Structure formats: C-alpha cells, structure tokens
Amino acid sequence: MKKFLFLVLLLPLLGITQTKTLITSNRLFAKNNKVSDFEKALTAHAQKYHKGEMAWRVWSIESGPDAGGYMVTEGPSTWSTLDGRGDISAEHTADWEKNVLPLTTGLGQSGYYDFQADLSTVQLSDYADKIVISHMTAKPGKVNDMKALLQKLKKVWQDGNESVAVYATVFSGEPGYIYVTRLKNGLKELATDYRKSLADRYNAANGSGSFDGWLKDYADIVQSRWSELLTYKPLLGSK
Q1: Burial class (CB in 10 A: 0-12, 13-18, 19+), 83
Q2: DSSP label of 52
Q3: Which of 36, 92, 165, 179 is the most exposed place for a label (fewest CB within 10 A)?
Q4: What pLDDT is attached to residue 40?
Q5: CA-CA distance, 54 to 77, in Å (whole number)?
C-alpha cells in the first residue's frame, strides 16, 4: 500500500519532467589570419566554462554556404534547465568577449533544435565523426505536412541502414526540420554505389511508382532544402 501511495504522489512529478532533447547550435567564423588563435581560444573557453550538460561539441563545416566556419553544439538539455541556468558569470562573459569574439568575423548564427525520436533511426547521443546536415524549410502552413513527409522516409532509412537524427527547428527562423545523416562508416557512405538510391529503396518499401507520389508531395510542402558536410573536432570542444 505504501508503495502504491508513493507512486501516486510521484505521478505529478513524472508528468512535468522534461526529456532532454533540446540542442543549442552556434556558428562562428574565424578571421582568415586568426584561425589558429581562434581555435586555441575557443578550446580554452570550452574546457573552462562548458562542462556537464553545458559541454560543447565542435564541428568544422566542410561544404555549403557556411564552409570554413565552425558549428558549436550544446546539450541535450531542456527549456527548464536553460531557464534555471541564470546569468552567465562576469568572468565567463569577459573571457568570451575578450579572448574569443575578437578573433571572429563578427558574423554568427544561433538556433535551437528539438530532437524527434519518432522520426529518427538513431538515438540522440549515438554520434558519428562525419555528418551531413540537410536543412528543410516548410511552405507557410505546411510544417505538419513536412513531419509526415519525413515520417515516410524513416522505414527507407532503416532499410538502408542509415543513421539519421531528425530535429525540429524551434524559435530559430523559418519553421522546418533538419535531418542529420551520421556517417558511421565514413565518407564512403556518400558514394553512389554504397547503397541503392533513395528512389529504389522507397519504391521497394512502398510499392512501384510510390516515390513519384512522395516527390509530388515534397514539391507542395518544401519551400527550400540545402545540405552540408561537417567533421567533428573533439580537441576543440569540452573535455
């Protein structure tokens, strides 16, 4: 009886507990003649001020419009944790503003991304050293349709043994999703002969000609899409 009462009392707490699915992403661009200095300063800052749940993972952006830049991710976390974090210390802020920021071009991007377990074929923390990020923006009023569009790809990814993590873009520009293909076997996964084409696998899973229907829906739902290749740089992040 006591155990039952304990569980009843615990239920409200379980209901308000937030799962750690939120990733914070920042993109930074070093000055051309300060790359080495920037990397040293970024590493020192990460290792001194970003530990535990606030640890940093740093990536170099190899292709796409942000090529040559760095992506810094923090988390997973929750909105409650971020809310309770409080003000960053004066020392922390001063280190960033004095030692890191002056070595950048001044440009940057920040965003929040919420991991979607039901759309993904891999656990959030099952990382890889090389990734492809595909960014998808929905047409007005079509963001829910975009989720359904991605859901139809999940079985195809599973059949192709692809490790794909899907995130919803949250309060960070135009609504949409990103999906991160984690290249567990390296860049060779990008070769055209590594696995069958997406069209062939989709038709095999859903019936002959079904991929044409998916493409028709895609054209009606997706405003824009672009992708980029990134490489993990563990020596530049938190320890």
Answers
A1: exposed
A2: G
A3: 36
A4: 98
A5: 8
Rounded CA-CA distance 44/100 in Å is 9
Structure token digits, residue 134: 């595909």
Of 99, 110, 116, nearest to 172 by C-alpha is: 110
CA 61 to chain centre: 13
Give whole-number Cα distances, 147 to 24, 122, 175, in Å. Answer: 21, 17, 11
Query: Which of 174, 173, 195, 176 lies closest to 184 in space, CA to CA?
Result: 195
Q: Which helix or strand (DSSP H or E) is residue 136 part of?
A: strand 130-138
110 torsion bin: left (phi>0), alpha (psi -120 to 50), beta (else): beta
**Domains, the chain, ordered by start:** 20-239 (3.30.70.100)
Note the pLDDT of residue 84. 81
Say what the pLDDT of residue 17 is.
54
Cβ distance 119 to 160 under 8 Å? no
Task: Look at residue 13 in the predicted model and tell me its pLDDT.
Answer: 42
Q: Is 86 left (phi over 0), alpha (psi -120 to 50) or beta?
A: left
Residues 156-200 have pLDDT tens digits of 999 999 999 999 999 999 999 999 999 999 999 999 999 999 999
Task: Classify 130 in phi/psi space as left (phi over 0), alpha (psi -120 to 50) or beta.
Answer: beta
Place of tokens 């040559």: 68
Residue listed under structure tokens 């300063």: 41
